[in-house]
Each structure stands twice: as structure tokens, then as C-alpha cells.
Design brief:
about 100 residues, mainly beta, 4-stranded antiparallel beta sheet, 3-stranded antiparallel beta sheet, about 0% helix
């Protein structure tokens, strides 16, 4: 997993922009799957701030990922599974769970 982004100071606090999350795989047995996949399109206005889980959830001997993102007042968990990935994917977003977190 690779992330990129920029921090700039605004009102004396760091603000993240252009945040991207990529998953890479360098052991494909066939050429039907890419060696890198941009997962950022799944996050909308949220940005990911934590990798919650990396391991095999669904028993296919390939890594799956749970990422955590934040919005204005919500926290969202994103579940990506390798077993449901389509031809041009390494992982597939299969579920999200959001909750309100405004103090």
C-alpha cells in the first residue's frame, strides 16, 4: 500500500490535500490484474487517515484491507476484498460503514 498527498499550513494547522491511496501487487500469476490500483476514487470528499486491517479476511490466501476515513463529522470504514476483485482490480470495495462523530 502506498499513499501520497500534500500538507499545507492553514491557520497554523496542517491541512492534507491531493491524498491518494494505491495498492500494489508484484506477484500476479496472470496478466489479467494490474500491478497497481488507485483506491482513492472510493473516498469521495473523505480522506483516509488509517489502515485499520491488512490480512486475509475471506480465506482466499490474498490480502484484504480495511481503511478508515474521516469527513466533516463522520468516520467511515471501507472494506476491500481481493476475492471479489474484477479483471482490472487487485481489490474491490464491497462494504462501507459510517457513523456520526461530532463533539
Amino acid at each position: 500500500m502506498v499513499t501520497t498527498g500534500n500538507y499545507q499550513l492553514e491557520y497554523n494547522r496542517p491541512v492534507l490535500s491531493d491524498f491518494k491511496v494505491f495498492i500494489t501487487c508484484n506477484h500476479q500469476k496472470d496478466n489479467s490484474k494490474p500491478s497497481i490500483q488507485n483506491l482513492s476514487d472510493h473516498f469521495g470528499f473523505n480522506h483516509v487517515f488509517a489502515l485499520n486491517y491488512y490480512g486475509d479476511i475471506d480465506g482466499d490466501n490474498k490480502p484484504d484491507v480495511i481503511l478508515v476515513g474521516s469527513g466533516e463529522a463522520t468516520i467511515t470504514y471501507y472494506l476491500f476484498l481481493s476475492s471479489l476483485a474484477r479483471k482490472n482490480e487487485i481489490l474491490r470495495l464491497v462494504s462501507t460503514f459510517s457513523f456520526y462523530d461530532k463533539c
